[in-house]
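User: Predict the structure for this protein chain, please.
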Amino acid sequence: MRWLVFIALLFLVLMSLTRLLLYLTYTSPQQHFVSSLPAFWLGLRYDLRDVGILCVVLLILGSFPVFHPYRGRWGKAVWFTLLWVAAVSFTVVYSLDFQYYAYLSQRLNASVLNYMGDADTSLSMIWESYPVIRIFLTIIGVTLVIMVVLRWGYRRVSSAKVQTSRGARWAWGVLLFVLLGGGIFGHLGQYPLRWSDAFSLKNDRQAQLALNPFQSFFSSLKFRYQTFNKASVSQYYPLMATYLGVSRPDSVTLDYTRAVSGSGQDRPNIVLVICESFSGYKSSMWGNPLNTTPYFNSLCAEGVFFDHCFTPHYGTARGVWATLTGTPDVAIDNTSSRNPQAVDQHSILNDLDGYEKYYFIGGSASWANIRGLLENNLKGLHLFEQNDYTSPKLDVWGISDKNLFMEANKVLVTQNKPFFAIIQTSDNHRPYTIPAEDRKDFHDVGYPSDTLRKYGFQSNEELNAFRYTDYCFRYFLETARQEPYFRNTIFMFIGDHGIRGDAGNMLPRAWTDEALSCFHVPLLFYSPALLAPARHTMNCSQVDVMPSLAGLVHAPYTNSTLGRDLFHLGDTSTNASFIMDHDAKEIGVVMNGYYYVRQITGGKERLVSIRNNDPLPAGRSTDSLEDRMRIYTDALYQTARYLLINNHKKP
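Assistant: Here is the predicted structure, written as structure tokens:
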């Protein structure tokens, strides 16, 4: 029992040190240590749960004489085998957790299993982005140190002769079992400590600090299998039919179809650029002092810019899905592109008759089974991948973004028919590779780490990759401007998702505290000859992309999902941007300057203002606002779940 206490204290100290290291490495200037103490306390309770489980197993095992660690060779061997497993698990899981947090600003959770669907690509990205050999050697070294300390503790306890009666030993055993059980339960009240309790802290960053990777991973596993509830879909159908403008509502068949007429006479080309990790607060459009995207900022002043666009979720595969289909990817078990039941989807793009359709990606479309989404649903699509280009491979994501734009341009200049081209960028992503061929025109900048973190970046490599994206946009549009197709083309840019981080004073605090920075992206329609400049503050989403583009080219189309034409809306005060945080297991809506968010299970909810740090309205006004946003959240969520497997492409 004394050795068990030693084991427990050792692992608690190690877990606390890793949490402190995480805090010191990724803390922001606004996150003071004193304000983080509640997160450390809650984190200690999570750690006690994991340590308690380990020690209860060992305590029960040691109660059998044959497995007693001090009374026989077999017992000692079994205990040290289990401790080797525990030590290796600790070092491996916490190493993965640390790198996962560096990548996504999230503790390790079950979403990591989604990357296993593309193991080759994921492993290549890890190899190119991280010092794998050094990490591996560190894991070995830390594991060996843990085992040396455990053996020292074993010998120390063995040499300390303490005489106790049989009754005393039983009493101490029962007491230790109760204490360990209390640590596992984690609460003094009726209900045990839950993973979701971390999100009762004041913001997302504190919640992530409190969690530990074992708790986060295993607790989130249970969310991996969900389906729709038809009764709930029917309940909210009248609201959604009105919100979407369904002309012939039918609550029995749950018909969401809107047939939109169009002259079909104006046939401008479309170039849709899906921009990797194009996070709003990191860019120049919201006043980032590092001025990372000056060229794109100038485009926004000359085009139709929507500054309150939110992606429904985090992740490139989910972002591509929502953009092309008009339905948020609310599947929890995996991305919908990997779901055979969901991959059959109607897309408005198919209704654009007479258009040649192209998709350009620098790497492989097999990633996340995007190929299945594209080729199964988009009729006559010309798909270009890494092996179709003459440009050299740059890294795991294929050719560079600049070369991707140039390869696309070579195809587009040959077109005699109207075209709809989608270009998916990737360089603003680890391993943040900038090709040597561009170094004479593109020059890195460097700032101290405190300056970088103050303005939303973790490293100079990340900053320069973001700047390189702006360089590629400029190179592409200046090249396209010389081509015949430019004048009759609408260029549209949207981020596939944002990045969690501290927006500092660039945006109200709720954008950081509630992780809205993860979902806020620029949305720009640019065509000097066809569109007059405008800046809109209405809420909008990736799901609005396809109906808006179809409306701009005056094409007749059928819309059967949640997207709406942003250029032909009436009252925009009801615009609601739906958000699902798959990692935090929360859903919510941005609406009228407020953000309502609720746990998918557990029911904890909160309402915050996202305008200039304004306080919430007092009294019944707050209750009424919260009730309204709760209803919209549930309506959009339940409808999206239904549409994922009930929005089949038209014959």
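The longest helix spans residues 73-104.
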